[in-house]
Amino acid sequence: MIIALWILNGLLALAFIMAGSMKAVRPKTALVASGMGWADDFADPTVKLIGIAEVVGGIGLILPLLTDIAPILTPIAATALAIVMIGAIVVHIRRKENATPSIVLAALSVVSAVLGFIVVL
């Protein structure tokens, strides 16, 4: 189980840290121009906050388990990322956009949380 958790969390962390850092660093206008039309519906600080939350969550998937310091934070981070992705699904559906990537990331985050709670507890 621990190997599956490491593989899943590694891939999720990579995806969330990359996507989150892009949202946190790039200006909102550049995000909208690159195809992230949803960003136009939010204030710039909100888009940055979403990006920072994804980066911190991605780090939270790896660091506590790696250092064995408070490993319970790993499934908690996965749960928090699943909640963020549920919000993303709602936004994409309301805008009549493709929500498939958000659905996949939400489902994988839930699987990570379940595996994490099984391994840690």
TrEMBL record:
Sorted UniProt keywords: Membrane, Transmembrane, Transmembrane helix
Q: Where are the transmembrane segments?
A: 6-25, 72-91, 103-120
Entry membrane topology: Multi-pass membrane protein
Query: What InterPro entries does the record tag this protein with?
Result: DoxX (IPR032808)
Keyword Transmembrane helix listed? The answer is: yes
Compartment annotation: Membrane
Q: Does the keyword Chloroplast apply?
A: no
- Protein's name in the database: DoxX family protein
Q: What is the lineage of its organism?
A: Bacteria, Bacillati, Actinomycetota, Actinomycetes, Micrococcales
